[in-house]
Specification:
The complex is a heterodimer of chains A (about 180) and B (about 250). Chain A is mainly α and about 180 residues long. Chain A contains four helices and no strands. Chain A has one domain. Chain A starts with a helix and ends with a helix. The chains are: A mainly alpha (about 180), B mainly alpha (about 250).
Chain lengths: ~180, ~250
């Protein structure tokens, strides 16, 4: 700082004429303006020839890359969505098909079942009719046997009691008794 | 000024807040001719070198994923580009390199000037006035070239009542011609004032009892100056854009 002070004292003539404000020392204006114009031209040339086109290109390239990547991502996303939709569709189709098969099978089974039941019913009915017939026959046979036995027994009893009976009378008497 | 004279005579406290703005030759002890290499030359050259380092060397690798330097360079580019586009519209974009030049020069001069022992070119009215008048003249010429006599419509406020318009026109004309003055003094004044205040605080540090307070004050002022350095560069640039917009679209 000391050297600064001394140099300012050396420029004392100028400093004294411009009281305190070096900004108003017009003797330095030409110098500053000259170097300023030079500096500005230098910066302008550096910027317009090299820096700005380069930065602009870098930014544009980055923007392009980003746009491309986003487009690609959207494309992939769309494809994934399509695949998902196809999968859903296939799933839905399969489900409908399964429903249909189930329904068909159910109908088929029901028909078979109904037919079998009907057949079984018919068989049962036939068999029970046969059995009833057989039972009726047996019952009828049993009545005849009872009558025969009764007639025989009555004849034997009559004989044992010393009587003599006509078999036809006996049968008629037994018959009459059984009806009553 | 007065304080300086007192300091000279008092001996104990020495205030030379304005000495940092003296333009002196770097080599030799002669006078300052227009071609002399001075401290102003040095710090302007450093500003140019810094711009080159940031915007050219920083982006040399042209990476898609930027390095830190490249990121800062792109940030500066985008900042000014968007400002020009937002304010001047699409047809203002072709003047973007000029505005970027002004911004980069001012912002680097301001920041380099904050280094201790540095010289701040933008604290000189000679420098800021050249830039402001360059903007003023360019904008005025551009306005007439683009719009012809229609550029004068800038001063004729058609939305105002008819009797008021001549008065408003007069005010508009005056304010138009005051533009370069305020444009340049705002920047130079801000830079000069901040640096001078820091220097005054530094002068107080010679008194041991006040020294800690002085250091704190210098630190605080320095922080403020960092802010001001950027804001003034921003203000100068945005005003340039606004003036350019007036030239391109003079109708209110």
């Amino acid at each position: 700082m000391a050297t600064d002070t001394h140099s300012s004292a050396g420029d004392g003539v100028a400093a004294a004429s411009a009281p305190g404000m070096p900004q108003l020392d017009f003797s330095t204006f030409g110098n500053q303006i000259f170097w300023l114009v030079l500096a500005l031209i230098a910066i302008y040339l550096v910027l317009s020839r090299m820096a700005l086109p380069r930065i602009g290109a870098v930014l544009a390239e980055r923007q392009g890359t980003i746009t491309n990547d986003i487009a690609k991502a959207e494309d992939l996303n769309k494809r994934a969505k399509e695949a998902e939709a196809a999968y859903e569709q296939a799933l839905a189709d399969a489900r409908t098909e399964a429903q249909r098969i189930i329904a068909e099978t159910k109908v088929g089974i029901k028909q078979d079942l109904d037919a079998a039941i009907a057949k079984a019913d018919a068989e049962i009915a036939a068999k029970s009719a046969d059995a009833e017939k057989a039972i009726a026959e047996i019952r009828a046979g049993a009545m005849d046997a009872v009558r025969d036995v009764a007639t025989d027994t009555v004849g034997e009893i009559v004989t044992a009691m010393g009587g003599k009976a006509d078999p036809a009378d006996l049968a008629a008497a037994v018959q009459a008794r059984m009806k009553g | 000024m007065a304080t300086e004279a007192q300091g000279e005579s008092g001996g104990g406290l020495e205030f030379h807040p304005m000495d940092q703005f003296i333009v002196s030759p770097l080599f030799g002890d002669g006078g300052v001719a227009w071609y002399t290499i001075t401290n102003a030359t040095l710090w302007m050259a450093l500003a140019v070198a810094a711009v080159f380092a940031l915007l050219v060397m920083g982006t040399a690798q042209r990476q898609i994923i930027p390095t830190r330097m490249q990121s800062v360079a792109e940030l500066a580019y985008g900042f000014i580009y968007k400002m020009v586009e937002d304010i001047c519209g699409k047809d203002g974009v072709k003047y973007f390199p000029y505005i970027m030049t002004l911004f980069m020069f001012i912002v680097f001069s301001n920041f380099l000037g904050l280094l201790p022992m540095a010289f701040t070119p933008t604290s000189h009215i000679a420098v800021t006035a050249v830039m402001a008048f360059a903007v003023f003249i360019a904008v005025t010429v551009l306005g007439f070239v683009k719009n012809g006599a229609g550029f004068l419509g800038l001063f004729w406020v058609s939305s105002a009542p008819l009797p008021l318009r001549p008065v408003l026109a007069l005010i508009e004309v005056i304010s138009y011609f005051v533009r370069p003055v305020s444009h340049s003094i705002r920047l130079a004044g801000n830079m000069m004032a901040g640096h001078a205040v820091i220097k005054v605080f530094a002068g107080f540090a010679a008194i041991a009892a006040i020294a800690p307070l002085s250091v704190v004050a210098i630190t605080a002022m320095y922080g403020l100056e960092v802010l001001v350095s950027f804001i003034q560069a921003y203000v100068f640039t945005i005003l340039t854009c606004v003036y350019l917009k007036d030239a391109l679209h003079p109708h209110h």
